[in-house]
Write a structure and sequence with these properties.
By secondary structure, this protein is an alpha/beta fold. 42% of the residues lie in helices and 17% in strands. It contains 14 helices and 17 strands. It has helices spanning 38-56, 72-81, 85-102, 118-130, 227-238, 252-267, 300-304, 309-317, 329-355, 365-376, 381-398, 404-420, 432-446, 450-462; strands spanning 2-5, 10-13, 23-27, 61-67, 110-113, 134-137, 141-144, 182-187, 207-209, 212-217, 220-224, 242-248, 273-279, 282-283, 325-326, 465-470, 473-478. The protein has a six-stranded antiparallel beta sheet with strand order 6-7-8-11-10-9. Strands 5-4-3-12-13 form a five-stranded parallel beta sheet, sandwiched between helices. Strands 1-2 form a two-stranded antiparallel sheet. The protein starts with a strand and ends in a 6-residue tail after the last strand.
Length: 484
């Protein structure tokens, strides 16, 4: 398998894990001050698909995701609502995990909330200070000095002079030496507050000082900057170098550049990460990036209130992960129709399997090769979907003639491949009332009472089902709806 590496600008072979060790993947998780939007969900869907595919191939993967549970935005939300910052973070972290489950995003092995790694964060800041990469701004905090890291900008192909301030106001200081310098540790406003009892115990909880959470450190009370949490967490789990780091393109600069600067400055080892994967923007109407700052986003809960998770996951798989694409209701309708055609073929395969009358063999080797080839080529999910639909097209030509065993194998293959892409189809069972109506209709047809049988067909259709008369007998199918 090859993956496009943002750092090198070309496709590279999947990194080989250390002997006896899993492939190590770190993905930037959410800042939990609000519900995630569907642009965020797209990125998480991409890495969910990557991990499920690698595990399908028999490759062991450890998938780690951080959760930023202390941040300016969380504090601002808490102050605005008159709530505790931790309560806000906990509520939205729980919402996030609930949304992941709803969207079939089930491949993460461990979640790492930043506030559980304060000792590791402090340790990294101490080492950066000791190596001369950080400087103190009195009454403000410790900042990373970009001039001490000449490689800054190598990921996004930008120079130190082109650096912009970070997303968070925590990096905004008129006393910085370089415009793009970023905060490693922010001092609390109340420096006179005494240290906690039992200092030296790394489990000492945060205090609220000046309406903000703070932890005790060698520099007094304070809290971590944004970028430092990721490297502290990844070093804790993976060491100073690992295999794949992923996120949306919006985090490439300055967040990922800052991560590289921090960890390579601490360790002296290059590269910090072998392959950097970045997911293209999901755009709103007019082609603008979907983001909370622009106010043009759709939250995941709002999406799930009107669209089945399979529709969203199918639509996401229909675009290559590095490509930006516009998410529209028309896209949802197309996905619904495509999923219905899959449901139809699976229903027919089940019907064929039960009939046991076919004698035509239907091998799957070519379809498997097509799917694997597509996914191995930088996770090309649109081509992988094409392989599935090529198979469906071929099946539709001979569906009533194939053997029951091949019908069963085809059903399993389609479901298995769709599950890798995050589409999990239920096996629909026809309600007993519909089956009873169908039985009456067949009895009327056998007695050539066609007016009565037509009336029963209409009654079945009014209940949301349709009858398809096949060479193997009548088949009941659910009608196409917006939800599948």
């Amino acid at each position: 398998m090859t993956i496009y590496n943002t750092l090198s600008g070309k496709k590279e072979p999947l990194p080989k894990p250390q002997p006896g060790k899993p492939l190590r993947l770190f993905v930037c998780g959410p800042t939990v001050y609000d519900h995630i939007h569907i642009g965020n969900a797209r990125a998480y869907a991409v890495f969910d698909t990557l991990v499920k595919y690698l595990r399908y191939l028999g490759i062991k993967v450890f998938y780690l995701q951080n959760i930023t549970d202390v941040d300016d935005k969380i504090i601002a939300r808490a102050n605005k609502e008159g709530r505790n910052w931790k309560a806000v973070a906990s509520a939205y972290a729980a919402s996030y995990k609930h949304i992941l489950k709803k969207l079939h995003l089930t491949s993460v092995d461990a979640y790492a909330p930043a506030t559980k790694y304060i000792p590791e964060i402090i340790n990294q800041v101490k080492r950066l200070i000791a190596r001369g990469h950080a400087y103190e701004i009195p009454d403000d905090g410790w900042y990373f000095n970009l001039k001490t890291f000449p490689d800054y900008g190598k990921l996004a192909k930008r120079t130190v002079e082109q650096a912009e301030d970070g997303v968070s106001r925590i990096d905004a200081s008129g006393a910085k030496r370089n415009r793009g310098d970023f905060c490693l540790w922010k001092f609390s406003h109340a420096k006179s507050t005494p240290p906690p009892k039992g200092y030296g115990n790394t489990k000492v909880p945060a205090r609220i000082i000046g309406a903000e959470p703070a932890w005790w450190s060698p520099w007094g009370w304070g809290r971590p900057g944004w970028h430092i949490e990721d490297t502290a967490i990844s070093e804790k789990y993976f060491g100073q170098q690992y295999d794949i780091h992923g996120a949306g393109r919006d985090l490439m600069f300055p967040h990922h550049e800052a991560e590289i600067a921090q960890q390579e400055s601490i360790s002296g080892k290059k590269p910090f990460v072998k392959i950097w994967m970045h997911v293209g923007f999901l755009t709103a109407k007019g082609g603008k990036k979907m983001s909370k700052s622009l106010g043009n986003f759709i939250t995941a809960p709002d999406l799930l209130a009107r669209v089945h998770p399979n529709v969203f996951r199918f639509a996401i798989a229909g675009a290559h992960y590095r490509s930006p694409f516009e998410y529209t209701t028309e896209l949802e309708s197309d996905a619904s129709r495509a999923l219905y055609s899959i449901y139809e073929i699976l229903a027919k395969l089940e019907f064929t399997k039960k009939s046991g009358r076919g004698d035509l063999r239907f091998p799957l080797q070519n379809s498997e090769k097509q799917f694997i080839s597509a996914m191995d080529d930088d996770l090309n999910t649109p081509k992988a979907l094409a392989a599935i639909f090529d198979l469906i097209g071929a099946l539709n030509q001979i569906i009533w003639r194939i053997t029951g065993k091949d019908a069963q194998n085809s059903d399993k293959w389609i479901r298995e491949k769709l599950k890798i892409l995050g589409v999990e189809l239920e096996t629909y069972k026809t309600p007993s009332k519909i089956r009873a109506l169908l039985k009456k209709r067949e009895l009327l047809r056998s007695n050539k009472q066609f007016a009565g049988s037509d009336a029963l067909r209409k009654e079945i259709e009014a209940l949301g089902y349709k009858v398809e008369d096949t060479p193997l007998g009548p088949l009941i199918l659910k009608k196409l709806k917006n939800r599948n």
